[in-house]
Write a structure and sequence with these properties.
- It is a single chain.
- By secondary structure, the protein is an all-alpha fold.
- 43% of the residues lie in helices and 0% in strands.
- The chain has helices spanning 2-9, 14-18, 35-40, 57-61, 64-69.
- It is globular, with a radius of gyration of 14 Å.
- Keywords: Chaperone.
């Protein structure tokens, strides 16, 4: 949470702090990955990254928005 806050509030270090952030993905299981790791494994013609903010992975997976992207 403090790193996320730093990305927003610390303009001098936001780029460096953003590299420390990790995200759960539909393919990563219990492991969280960096944005650069995600970009490296994107499909060849994938142009967009869709995301959802939720309190838990379970809550995110139950969202009707997730269903529309699959």
């Amino acid at each position: 949470t403090n790193i996320k806050r730093g990305v927003i509030e610390d303009s001098a270090n936001c780029t460096r702090l953003a590299k420390l952030l990790r995200y759960a993905t539909s393919l990563s299981g219990d492991k969280q990955i960096s944005l650069s790791q995600y970009v490296k494994r994107m499909k060849l013609k994938q142009e967009h990254i869709y995301f959802i903010a939720a309190m838990s992975i379970d809550e995110a997976q139950k969202s009707p928005f997730v269903e529309r992207t699959q």
